[in-house]
Amino acid sequence: MVRLLITICFSLWIIALPRGLMGQTLPEGASEDDLERLSERATSETAVSDALEEMIDLSAHPIDLNNATKAELQMIPFLTAKMCGNLEEYRQTYGEILSPFEMQIIPGFDSILIKKIMPYFILLPVSALPPPSPRNLINLGHHDLLLRFEQVLPISQGYNTSDSILSLKPNAGYKGTPHRYYFRYNYNWFDKIRIGFSGEKDPGEQFFRGAQSWGMDYYAGFLSIGSLGILKNLTIGNFKASFGQGLTFGSGLSTASMPGFSVSGYQTTSFLRPSGGIRPSLSVSEGDYLRGAALTIKTGRLEIAGFASWHYRDAKIASADTLGVQKFEFSSLISTGYHRTAEELANRNAISELIAGGNVNIPFSKGINFGMKIGFTGVYSQWSARFSQEQKIYNRYSLQGTFNYVIGADWLIRYKTLFLSGEVSRSASGGMALISMASFTPDPGVGLTLIYRNYDPHYQNLLGNAFGQNSNNCNEQGIYIAGNFALLRNIQLSLFCDFYSFPWLKYRVDRPARGYEAGIMTGWQASRNVNVNFRFYQKFGMINGLSENPYLHCLAEFNLRSYRITLNWNPSSFVTLKTRMEARETSSETNPVYFGYLVCQDLQVKFSRVPLTGTFRYALFDIPGYDQRIYIYEPEVLFGYSMPAYSGKGIRGCLVIRCKVTPFCEIWARGGVTYYSDRNEMGNGLDMRSGNTVTEITAQVMFRL
654-664 pLDDT, tens per residue? Predict the structure, then answer.
């Protein structure tokens, strides 16, 4: 009884903690390097913002360790596959975990690790949960409401077009105001019931008039019920889903799909890895989202998931009837979500998309030293018009038609400290794809990872998100090797190398090509309050060179090298300093060596007498071109995202202030200013701005009940 009372009190204390509300700092376990690599390869800022939002959302809705599945455990940062397996075996042997201190006897867990993961879990016995009566649903539910306003100054050329000109040239300017509006509401009753609703208006879109007569340009919402008998989860509305290694199906973006320093264990230890199963989503990404119904049931060891999604999508129409009512073909799917001009509005909801599929997961276990899991996934997708991409030599094997289906099988085998996992998949075209991983952890301070992938050029899957260099998992072969080592008690070493090749042509690569990525990163905990990190990264590849023949180019080699040193210093519990210096150079056979650098200083102050936190950044940069651009994560408001690609020559300043007005209300204010010394105008087209200074302002308020 005493243990039970201690556990309940501890769990309630954990629930009462503010989770992830710093806003201007990343959640524990999130890596700036992960986000910056993701920004370099992502096709839109919204996709990266969604990935960051998932990280913060997890810290706001912690996982109950006593009832979590292994897939849910793997969502917690810092936990390797072996740690999750040890934790699961401990629960099966000894029952519920009553205190976080009890976890120290689980192999692989110590006080430092437990402290790091504490924001992401709760320990709540089933017996402590009250019945879901209407009164308890009202009194014990948690409500979050967030409102945000953003604007960039000076306004761009697209907002200076008069109505008379727009009537003659509809695409000569933006129809709406330059403001961005965003809101999200979340209701959470333990891990049983969740209700969410969000909306966004992008700059340039109308608000409660014209094409956006319902206010926001885009709305998302869901109702999710979970942990009720064999019903693991039922979600109606917007959701995301990922199974296996994400090769057959993996919605959303993840740094687990890209080479880097974060891989350890059979999946990445990075926070942005593909999480298993189905989960509700309030993402405002207006392209790659799922909307419909999803169900997951678990009976014994067998877990079955099924889903169906149907909604309209933006698309570039290639052919239609004379009135444009019936669409016969479309050349591309559009994921930007912008509906500001007549042309963008014409592409809005141009076609309908149906995605349906499911997964069967069968785990086996023969004790703490051996475990195995097998999964089978099938997905069918269909569009109301024919997908017909412009025929080029490099996209000869691209998807064509009105439908596609993909089937696959994934596996995981665990023997002591060795993990073997992978997935094989086949598309309707007959193309095959395979990814296989091996991870070995002979010691808590040593981790080795090997990943092999082989994706056929004619493997067609728009819904995959597995490890690889390409944005789509096709036309690629490669071997990835990584290692993490604790050289001394206060020195960590990580290194990786990825050798890859493309059997068929690519965009701007007119012949089969090869390349590699490699990097090394060291971390030194100089003292309790001082941490130093150094990173070197190099990429070698091939791209079209200069040629008189416009249809066939000779390939030219190019190199990219990046050097970074970061110093983190906490002189007191109220002040945090972070200094970052980074240099990047590129060279090729046809271009000289270009060199760029960036230096930035962060200062965060937490006032002790008032509930106020301020974060300031000052940066200097001199970067000659876009190929040498440097991405760096900026301080932001809660659920906000700012990852500018520094290019040119100038100065950048940013300030974020967070104030807790009452126990139920917090406000954020953010301002950023960039001054360029090498130009007199910024942007191009309708986004052209006069002058050499651009300013962003953000105001946000959050109510928590």
Answer: 999 999 999 89
